[in-house]
C-alpha cells in the first residue's frame, strides 16, 4: 500500500503544480502553491483507489484527486487563520498566513476553491453528465450543508458554555472532515455511474475513525510527529472523542469503525485490499 | 428599464432566499442570508437581459443570476474583512463580520462560493454540456485568473511604494470587478450556445465605465447615497481613475466607454435597449 500511496502523492503533486502554474505569476499563485504542498494526500488516494475499484481510468480520476486536495488545502488555510483556529504550524511548516499574510491567505484559499470546481469541469474526467453530477455532489460536500457547516459547528463549540455531546461532536465531524472524505471515496463510483452506497458507508466509518485517531494523537503525539501543534483541544477545554470516551474508549471505537469500514467493502472482495489497508493503517499509526 | 430591474431584483431575491434556506438553520445560514441582502443586482440583471436577448427562458437563467449574486456577495464579505479592506459599512448596513463575527464572515463567504457553483449545476439551466461550459467559464472568472487575481493586485497596490499606472489599474479592474461582469453578460450567449464575443465586448466597456464611475462617486458622493464609506481611496493615497485622469478626464473616459459598449450591441438592434440604458444609467447617476 505504501508504494501505491507514494505513487499517488507524486502524481497528484505534479498535476496540482501544473494546475496552479496555469495562473498568472505572483504572490497569490505562490501562496496557492505553498498551501497545496505536502500532506498525506488521503483524499486523493481515496479518489484514485475508488476509481481503480470501479474500472475508471487514472487519467479521468486525476483531476478529481487534484480537486479534492485543492479544496482540502483551502479549508486548512482558512481554518488556520487568526479569526478561526489561529494556528501557526501546519505540516511542519509555518501556516500560509504566517508565511505570507492574512489577506493573501484568505485570497489563496478562495482561489483554491474556485480552482477545485474548475478542475471538476475538465473534459478528461468524462461526459458532461458525469462532470455535472460530480460538481453537484462536490458543492454539497463542501458548502453550508457539508464541510463549512461542520467548521461553523466547531467554531460555535469553542464559545459554547456546555461541552458538546457525543452526538453533536459526531455531527460536527461528519461535516468538517467527513463530507469531503465521503465525496472522495464515492468519486470512482460516480465516474463509473455505479451505486455509491457501499463507498459512502466505507467512508463514513473511515472518516470518523480518522477523526478519533486525530483526537488521540492530539493527546499522545508530539509536534515533530504530527507537524502541527498538539494539546490544543485539551488546552482550549474543547470536547473531543477522547475527552468524552476516554483514551481506551476512543481506541475501542476506532477499532469498531475500522471493522465496519471493512464490512462495507465486502462486495468488492480482494480488489479493495488497499482501502482495507488504509483503514487499518489509521489505527496502527495513531490509536 | 427601472421596472425591469425591480422585477429582476424581486425574482432573484426570492430565488436566492430559497437556495440559502435549503441549508441547515443556524448562524452560518443567517450570515449567508444577511450577506446576500440588498445591492443593485447589476450582475443578475445582466444575466437575465443577456438570456432574453438570446431567446433563453427565464427559468434557465434564474439559477445563473442567483449564482453570480451569491458569488458577488461572498467577494464583498471577504473584501470587507479587517485583513482586507477593513470596511464596517456596506449597502448602508454593518458589514457581515461586524454584524456577526470574523470567523462567521469567512465561512459564510466560503459557503456562498460553494453555493454559487452548486447553483450552476442546476438541471433547470439546460443540458449538462451547457452547465459544464458555464461552470468552467465561471471558475476562470472568479479564481486566480479573474476576480481573486484582481483583488490580490488591489491588496498589493496598497503596500506598494509607487502608485499604479493607468495600465496597471485597468488590469486590476478587469480582474476585480470586470471578470464577473463579463461572465454575467456572456451567460445568455453561453446558454444559447451563441457567439459570446459581442457581449464580452459590451461588458468590458461597461465594467470599466462602472469602476470609473465608482471612483468618481468615492470623491463626489456621500455615504447616505452610496451606502458605504467614501473618500477611502483618497485617504489611503491609492491611485484611482480619478487621481490619474482628473475628475473631468474620468468623466470623459466614462462617456467614451459607454459609447463603445453601445457599439458592441449593434448586431442586437433595438432588442438591446435595456442593456444600452443600463450603460447610460451608469453615467447619469454617477458621472
UniProtKB/TrEMBL annotation, chains A, B:
UniProt cross-references to PROSITE patterns, sorted A to Z: POLYPRENYL_SYNTHASE_1, POLYPRENYL_SYNTHASE_2
InterPro entries membership: Isoprenoid_synthase_dom_sf (IPR008949), Polyprenyl_synt (IPR000092), Polyprenyl_synt_CS (IPR033749), Prenyl_diphosphate_synthase (IPR053378)
SUPFAM superfamilies: Terpenoid synthases
Record key words, sorted: Isoprene biosynthesis, Magnesium, Metal-binding, Transferase
Cofactor: Mg(2+)
Keyword Zinc (UniProt): no
Family: Belongs to the FPP/GGPP synthase family.
Protein's name according to its UniProt entry: Polyprenyl synthetase family protein
Organism, scientific name: Paracoccus cavernae
Taxonomy of the source species: Bacteria, Pseudomonadati, Pseudomonadota, Alphaproteobacteria, Rhodobacterales
Amino acid at each position: 500500500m505504501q508504494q501505491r500511496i507514494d505513487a499517488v502523492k507524486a502524481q497528484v503533486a505534479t498535476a496540482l503544480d501544473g494546475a496552479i502554474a496555469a495562473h498568472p505569476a505572483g504572490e497569490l499563485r505562490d501562496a496557492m502553491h505553498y498551501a497545496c504542498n505536502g500532506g498525506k494526500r488521503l483524499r486523493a488516494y481515496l479518489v484514485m483507489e475508488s476509481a481503480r475499484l470501479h474500472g475508471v481510468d487514472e487519467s479521468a480520476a486525476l483531476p478529481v484527486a487534484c480537486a479534492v486536495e485543492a479544496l482540502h488545502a483551502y479549508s486548512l488555510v482558512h481554518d488556520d487563520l487568526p479569526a478561526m483556529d489561529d494556528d501557526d504550524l501546519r505540516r511542519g511548516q509555518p501556516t500560509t498566513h504566517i508565511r505570507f499574510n492574512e489577506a493573501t491567505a484568505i485570497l489563496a484559499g478562495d482561489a483554491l476553491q474556485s480552482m477545485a470546481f474548475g478542475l471538476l469541469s475538465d473534459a478528461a474526467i468524462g461526459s458532461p453528465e458525469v462532470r455535472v453530477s460530480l460538481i453537484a455532489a462536490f458543492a454539497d460536500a463542501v458548502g453550508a450543508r457539508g464541510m463549512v457547516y461542520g467548521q461553523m459547528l466547531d467554531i460555535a463549540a469553542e464559545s459554547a458554555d456546555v461541552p458538546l455531546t457525543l452526538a453533536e461532536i459526531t455531527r460536527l465531524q461528519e461535516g468538517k472532515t467527513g463530507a469531503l472524505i465521503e465525496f472522495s471515496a464515492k468519486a470512482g463510483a460516480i465516474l463509473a455511474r455505479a451505486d455509491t452506497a457501499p463507498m459512502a458507508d466505507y467512508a463514513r466509518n473511515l472518516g470518523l475513525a480518522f477523526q478519533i485517531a486525530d483526537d488521540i494523537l492530539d493527546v499522545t503525539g508530539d509536534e515533530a510527529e504530527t507537524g502541527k501543534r498538539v494539546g490544543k483541544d485539551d488546552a482550549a477545554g474543547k470536547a473531543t472523542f477522547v475527552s468524552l470516551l476516554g483514551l481506551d474508549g476512543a481506541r475501542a471505537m476506532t477499532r469498531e469503525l475500522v471493522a465496519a469500514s471493512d464490512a462495507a467493502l465486502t462486495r468488492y472482495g480482494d480488489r479493495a485490499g488497499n482501502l482495507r489497508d488504509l483503514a487499518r493503517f489509521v489505527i496502527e499509526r495513531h490509536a
